[in-house]
Design goal:
Elements: H1 2-9, H2 16-35, H3 40-46, H4 64-75, H5 80-89
């Protein structure tokens, strides 16, 4: 929660829920692309291909500067408003 609050305070997201929604969207895109289609994440989970979920006590690190560089490279900007606008207009 502290890391999410830090990302919100840094202006990457407007709220924790927006950050979580973006994380889920990226997770779904990553698994859908790797497994070949929409709904792949659910199928992979049911088939046991996704062996481990993050639990409440699990932690992972986010390199904020690396994330910013990747956002800039992918979206052509690191402006939160522009990134959100571009993300929301994708279908």
């Amino acid at each position: 929660m502290k890391e999410l609050d830090r990302l919100v305070a840094a202006g990457y997201f407007k709220s924790r829920s927006e950050a979580v929604a973006e994380g889920i969207r990226r997770l779904l895109l990553a698994y859908s692309g790797a497994a070949g289609g929409a709904g792949s994440l659910v199928r992979l989970y049911v088939e046991g291909a996704l062996k481990r979920d993050l639990g409440p006590g699990d932690t992972f690190e986010i390199n904020v500067e690396e994330a910013r560089r990747r956002i800039l490279k992918f979206f052509g900007t690191d402006s939160v408003n522009e990134v959100l606008r571009k993300t929301r207009t994708r279908v």
